[in-house]
Amino acid sequence: MMKTTELRAKDRAALNAELSALLKASVGLRMQLATQQLTNTSQLKKTRRAIARVKTILTEKAISNGQ
């Protein structure tokens, strides 16, 4: 998981790629949870929060550019 300062330094394309990767990871973790293969359930919470962090930064960048 990346820190907020590292995410803010990225451009929109990189943030969208990061978001896509996190969403794929989230689906994989949910599948592991459903099939009882997930041993570290805290990864779900960390991934959800990372997704929210990236979405927030994308929104901040859109607002700061007047879009």
Q: What's the helix-strand series?
A: HHH
Helical content stands at over 70%
Quick check: average pLDDT?
94
Radius of gyration: 14 Å
Given the structure, what is the number of helices?
3
Query: What distance separates the N and C termini?
Result: 28 Å
Please give the number of β-strands.
Answer: 0
Task: Provide an overview of this structure.
There is one protein chain. This protein is elongated. Helix 2 packs antiparallel against helix 3. It is mainly alpha-helical and 67 residues long. The chain has three helices and no strands.
Q: How would you summarize this macromolecular structure in one to three sentences?
A:
The chain is mainly alpha-helical and 67 residues long. It has helices spanning 4-8, 12-34, 42-64.
Chart the SSEs and their pairings.
Layout: H1 4-8, H2 12-34, H3 42-64
Fill in the keyword field for this structure:
single chain; mainly alpha
